[in-house]
Structures are given as structure tokens and as C-alpha cells.
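Thread: quick sanity check before group meeting

JM: Hey all, I'm pulling together slides for Thursday and realized we never actually wrote out the predicted structure for the chain we discussed last week. Dropping the sequence here so it's in one place. If anyone has concerns about the input, flag it before I start.
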Amino acid sequence: MPVEATIEEKETKIEASVEVATEVLPQEAADLEWEPPMPPTDLIFDDGEPLESNRHRICINVLIRLLLIAYSDRDDFFAGGNMFIYFSSAQVKNRDFRGPDFFVVLDVDGTRSRQGWVIWEEGGRYPDVIVELLSDSTRKADLSTKKRIYERQFRTPDYFVYDPFDENSLQGWHLGANQRYEALNPNDKGWLWCSRLELWLGIWQGTIDRETAPWLRFYDIDGNLVPLPEEAAQQEAEAAQQQAQAAQQEAELAQQEVEAERQRAETAQQEAEAERQRAETAQQEAEAERQRAETAQQEAEAERQRAEILADRLRELGIDPNNMP
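JM (edit): ok, ran it. Output follows.
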């Protein structure tokens, strides 16, 4: 985010504020009795300063939207971007500090609307995670002055910096047991583990809001990219389309099986009809053969009867038909 005057003047003012306010509200003492003397009320929440670039703006919005997706089943957190954080009266008096590009506070009411994060109005809660987006005008402060404030005043457990124009610039630190930042080691993909969010921070190359760049994205514990709402909707649409295509293929396959079964039944019916016709033909042939046999038997009987009549006539003539030459 932009800084007032020069970086050197900025660091001098911030360091002065930290000296006055150091240890006012350490993260670990949130539930100790804390009664700041007449906290200021004339706070400024918009200084009119533009972000470093459109890519910085998109990156901030992307991180907020992604966390809302990753934590969609929770409302006990607040994710802010490009917002002032007020933590001491001296800081308010000097008007010398502007909030992180992106920060997350856990275990708070995330449903309440806020113009900025005012520590004495939030029960002394400081950010659990901070991400600063580097630029030529903020790089020195982000890596020195602000880092010291987040480490020693805020006691923010996880701090990350990234230049949206340099995919190799991601760095991160975790607050160690000695209350000092320890550099995080990337995994084989170059991602850094954010223990407070239980998410990976890594670089994703692609197009968001019509700008193609190496974007800082969240990945879940299994290494799956946390999708933006529009990406999730597209994935759901693609999944629904794939399911519809699969259902259509199953329906076509079932139809083909029904048609094959119909053809098999039709073939079986044709074979049964052919077999019936063969049986009928055989029956007809058997009937014809029976009739031929019966006709032959009748002809033989008629021949026998003619022979018997002839023999009777011969006997009447005194001729023995059995002794005829």
C-alpha cells in the first residue's frame, strides 16, 4: 500500500509510535484487564490514496474472496483488505500508519461491518495473519518497519509478503517460541504453509478479472486450489454437464441393450416360428405317409378281395386255384 512522504520519514514516525505503544496490547494478554486512557474517536478510515496498481487491487480482493470460500462454514473470523488498523493513541496522533493489504483476525464476530480495525474496539485482538503486497514504494517498509511492528507490537503469528509482478517474490515468517519471526521454508511447489489458517499460500498462473498474472492463491491442506466463486460455479456447471452426459450415455446404452434384447427376442421368435413350421411340415409329411400307407393297405385289401372272388369262381368251375399250373 502507499506510504506518506518518504519511506525514511514513514519509518521514523512508525518507530516513534511503536516506542510509545510497545507492549500495550500483546496478543497473549487479550483477556487481561485493559483500559486505554480515553481512546481517540476522530479516526480516519480513508486517505484517498490509490493502490499501487490494478493488479494489487485484484490481488487483495482475491485473497478476501478466497478466504470467504475456504471458511464458508464459519463466521468467527474477519478478513480485511486495504483497511487501517489503529493500535495506539500515539499512532493515531501522528497519522503515520496505514493498515496491511490483507489481514485475518480469528475468533471474532465476522458478521459485524467495520470501516477499519480498531484494536481497543475489538477486545485487544490483533491480526492473526497479514499479507503485504510489495511494490517499489513499499518494499523497504514492508520488509523492515512493518515487519518489526507485526512481530513485536502485533505479535501476528503469520506474516507474508508478495510482489504481484514477481512470481518468485513470495516470502513468509512464523512467530517462534522466542516471539521472533522465523522464515518459512517452501514445499516442493514453492508454497508456504499458513499455520493459523491451515492453508497453503502459493502462486497460480492464470487470468482473473481479465488480467493474466501469477496470482497469490490459497490451497487447502490436500493441495487443492481454493476456487473463486465464479470458478466454483463453473466447476459445478462442468460437473453437472459431465453428469448429464454420463446420464445420457447410460440412457443410450440402456436403449441399445433394450434394442439388442428386442432383436434377440425377435430372432428367438423367428426361430420358434421356423421350428413350428418345421414341426408342422414334419407332421404334414407324417400324415401324408400315413395316408399313403393307408391307401396302400386299402389297395392291398382290394387286391386280396379280388383274388378271393376269383378263387371262388374258379372253385365254382371245378378248378382248385391252389393247384393251377
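AS: nice. Residues 1-8, 16-32, 44-48 have pLDDT under 50 and may be disordered. The first helix runs from residue 7 to 21.
JM: adding both to the slides.
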